[in-house]
Amino acid sequence: MPALNAYRQLEDIRYRLPTYHPHDRAPQHADNILAIANDFDVFWFDAFGVLNVGPVAIDGAVQAVAALRAQGKRVFVLSNAASVGKPHMVERFAGLGYDFSAEEIVTSRDAVLAMLADYPRDMTWGLIGLADRQQDLDALGLRVIHQSDAYFHERVDGYLFLATADWDAARQQALVAALDARPRPVILGNPDLIAPMPDHISYEPGSYILTLPDALFANVRVCGKPYPAIYDIAVRRLDHYEPARTLMCGDTLHTDILGGNAYGVRTALFTVHGFYRGLDYAHYIKDSGISPDYILPQL
């Protein structure tokens, strides 16, 4: 079962993730987000499994976000989606019925764009992901070669792993061999291992990069939850930030809950539509020791 395999992989590489801070707060159960809204001013929503499942908005989620806005709450998407630029993300959420502005959508791609400033301007980057809708990379003046290039590994100085489109075991084997022969930086734009779809599970970039051997992972930098850079960006978009009144809402213990906890905010695990759908989430909370502050079925 993909979710169980992903859970085991995440536990195996737990030492690579931010440090979880144990607490003695027993998870509180709530029927929906409005039942606990008075305790928070800022809501950070994961996308897949909380707001949508693939191309479909989860029942009641659009209305719940609108109700929070009506109460004067600040609402944001915090997503590990890194495949396309921000205008396309705004369009994607609008198509689902949401009214998130560009400033309210914080993605791991934002962290990727910021991280690129740490590298020499004359580097040639190998793009693993979609060939189109990359205008923000073009705007930075980057030299980028797409994974489809016949001499891909010979021509690049580092890799941007943003999406798994057309990626497969053979391409992964070639990447590992190239990194082993000539170590180069890898920026991982999406640390998720899997993502829920209406009728299947999608394998995400983290399943290929977070699980690399230690020697190769030494040259990897990770953007997105549970790592702190995406939270730093979200905080900079707030006029006032109070961690205890900020709620990270997600469907994955090792990504949303661990990440929010490590950053110092409160967390809520959503159980019906995402990573733990059909599973005994309480068993995995106990097994991992990663405990959310709240447990909800959905928004």
What does this structure look like?
- This is HAD hydrolase family.
- This protein is an alpha/beta fold and 299 residues long.
- The chain folds into 2 domains: 26-109 and 226-296, Rossmann fold, CATH 3.40.50; 111-222, HAD superfamily/HAD-like (Rossmann fold, 3-Layer(aba) Sandwich).
- The protein is 32% helix and 19% strand.
- It is built from 12 helices and 16 strands.
- The strands form 4 sheets. It has a 7-stranded parallel beta sheet with strand order 1-16-15-14-2-5-6, with helices on both faces. Strands 8-7-9-10-13 form a 5-stranded parallel beta sheet. Strands 3-4 form a two-stranded antiparallel sheet.
- Strand 5, helix 3 (86-96) and strand 6 form a beta-alpha-beta unit.
- The longest helix has 13 residues, at 169-181.
Outline the biggest β-sheet: 7 strands, parallel
Find the structural class using helix and strand composition. alpha/beta
Low-confidence stretches: none
Overall average pLDDT: 96
Q: Estimate nothing, just give the exact number of structural domains.
A: 2
Assembly form of the protein: single chain
Radius of gyration, Cα only, in angstroms? 19 Å
Secondary structure topology:
Elements: H1 2-12, E1 28-29, E2 42-45, E3 52-53, E4 56-57, H2 61-70, E5 74-79, H3 86-96, E6 105-107, H4 108-115, E7 124-128, H5 135-139, E8 143-146, H6 152-155, E9 158-161, H7 169-181, E10 186-188, E11 194-196, E12 201-203, H8 206-209, H9 214-217, E13 220-222, H10 229-236, E14 246-250, H11 253-263, E15 266-270, H12 281-288, E16 294-296
Parallel strand pairs: 1-16, 2-5, 2-14, 5-6, 7-8, 7-9, 9-10, 10-13, 14-15, 15-16
Antiparallel strand pairs: 3-4, 11-12
